[in-house]
Fold:
Amino acid sequence: MKKAKTAAVRKKKELSTSLFPKIERRMLAVNAGLLTRAVSLLVDFLLLRFTIAIPFVKKVLSFYEQAGITVYEANSSINSSEVFNISRAYFEAHPEILNQLYLWFIGMFAAFWLYFSLMEFFFGQTFGKMLVKLAVIRDERPSVKDARALRPSILQCLLKNIRWIPFLPLIMLWPIDLLFVIFRKDKRSLSEVMSGTKTVQYVEY
Structure:
């Protein structure tokens, strides 16, 4: 009876730890390639577009409407110089509105950064990565046969996704990461090298 209870507790513990992510001894993990990374990023981008980016764009357009610029004019390339001059004059006269615009812009990319960082910290995956069976893990071979040993820290996840912060030189990580994935043998990006993580694709066997 005691043995059965101990086995049940052990099984429950194994199930709870195996939730991060589903990379276990019964699964084979290989370094993620460029195509699967691109597909997962596209899925995440579409998700973020409808949940975060569209509300942000609507807010920006509301600022333009306050300046007397219609939504059509703001989105049109026709008379773009005139639209630019009107908006510049308006924002110069109302610096508090421009400050709000900057805050919304920074907030949108901060939300992107936190989405990727927190999802990879808690689940090892974003929704896009779940779709193509990718996961972010530590770049090491754990000595303990426990899924938690593969889990990157929150600092590692924040550092890995720091390219989402829209300031130089951080945004330069995008093209550099691409080159690293293409030319490195282990297909790790510079962001992953700096953070001590790697993205793998796992397959059950």
